[in-house]
Design goal:
This protein is an alpha/beta fold. The chain has helices spanning 28-32, 45-59, 82-89, 104-113, 198-210, 216-223, 249-255, 270-297, 313-321, 338-352, 370-377, 389-401, 432-442, 460-463, 505-518, 539-548; strands at 2-7, 13-18, 21-27, 66-72, 98-102, 121-126, 144-153, 161-166, 171-178, 237-239, 245-247, 302-306, 327-330, 383-386, 406-409, 423-427, 452-456, 464-465, 475-479, 493-499, 522-527, 553-556, 559-562. Strands 14-23-22-15-16-21-17-20-19-18 form a 10-stranded mixed beta sheet, with helices on both faces. The longest helix has 28 residues, at 270-297. It is globular, with a radius of gyration of 23 Å.
Length: 564
Amino acid sequence: MWILGISKSHNGAVALSHNGKIVSAIQAERISRVKRQAIELENDKTLVTECVKYCLNQAGIKHSDLQAISICTPWDVVEIKNEKLFDLIGGTPKSYKKTYYVPHHYAHAEYILHYSKLSKGIILVVDGSGTKEKDRELFNIKEKVDNECKSYIDQSGKETISAYSFDEKELSLIYRFSLSSDKNNQANLNGNGFLQSIGHYWRWASNYCCGSHSEAGKVMGLAAFGNAEVHKDLKILSLNDDGFLKVDYKKLNEKFNYPNFFGKDLTQNSHYSDIAAMVQKETENLLIKILRILKKKYPTETLYYSGGVALNMVANEKIIRSNLFKNVILNGSAEDNGTAIGAALAAYNSLTGDRSISHLTDYYGKFYSEDEVLKSIKKFPYKYELLSEENKYSVVSSLLINNNVVGWFQDRSEFGPRALGNRSILANPKSHYTKYILDLHIKQRDRYRPYSPVVLEEYAKQYFDIEGNSPVMMSGGKVLNSNFPAITHRDSSARVQTLSEKDNKVFYNLLKNFYKISGFPIILNTSFNLPGEPIVESPTDALNSFKNGALQYLCIGNYLVSRS
């Protein structure tokens, strides 16, 4: 059974499942080359069609083979006639069964649940906002609600925190917070639409510190330079013992009225780094409190955690180290793009009653053949040579040892915001010089933003104080060795990717070879993209990035491309 899942969101995506297994997925931004590209089914025919075609071609099927389409939308639900949907996918399926509409947080939950073979547990979803309460009747995939479910809901609100229990068969809603922003004297900030939401608290911080609502990652990096104790008495985030959330935007609006510092080095003004530290600390404390409340009522050893707020790896580390749960499951596509996968899986369960727990990979993109790679290379005026599979690893390792920054393009692309070794830029983690080159010439990032290390799983605890493994780069810990300045943040932490052969064989072989040459099993790994652009998808994207950037080398498949 072939099912197409669509995330109709500000971070849109399309996914394709076969008998409950995801076989292909693509974010809209990788096709359009516009970062955080939205999908609006009513207006984006060409983009949607291209995304659908990408997934169908990868699976080797046609639109006529589809049995269902499943749509997840975070806000306004608009039922789309089948004729319109079929036009978007390229034609009418032969044995079509149903079009599904899936609640936003439910799609997040379905995705993270299938990310592990572990069974019973609690699923926590925390983001900016999801489904409107008044629209729930429009969804034909319904949530089962636990008899003792605790909820704060009004019909004008949007879900911002949801929790589910899973008993190996069914998902049951056990907690939801969904109140409009002005409820109970909780004022909007200057009418800008910030909700009673941890995600929207970060939108406020991002806008205040960076001049944009979508720079939460910068705020997280900036927090390490600040002192949360400066604002310890403010208590902007609060949660009572019954689960009632309050974000006091009124207090924020009264307290913080400071000249814009956008475009400048925010670490040179402690006001902004202290704000970032405050937001980070409050978020960590509130998440732990939510989890304590949930676990007291629903004792379990396993936590599944997803939604946009789950991209905060510093908070994730605190959750893991709290020891509230023996197992903490995190997925690499915790933001809205992942709901395309969740929607497809939810529809399959609805049609078949089957919710088999099967580990999902993070590599759902197209595999480009050697001929396709070579054809793209020949369009650009650069030197290139074909390397053997074995020689590829030693050549790239030597380049890295000599402080060259290398573009690395291999196999199927990663789905989600993390470069996990198939669409990466790699560098020597021991070199101050490589971080300087990355910051100034290649990534052109603010210097307070850290770069991540990838480390061989079997040696991870020798170099980093981490709990368990982190294959999707969603948690981290202290760097135990001071010889790695390029991947060590201001607070001596790092966002770690642990790597085993089963995670990614090609990337593992490179890191293994690098270890033999260098004597240390760590490489700096950052996403392959230029400033303001999404991660590269195709060989042509990679070569355009090479052309317009400052990389000296690009290893694409078994070809090494160089400028001279």
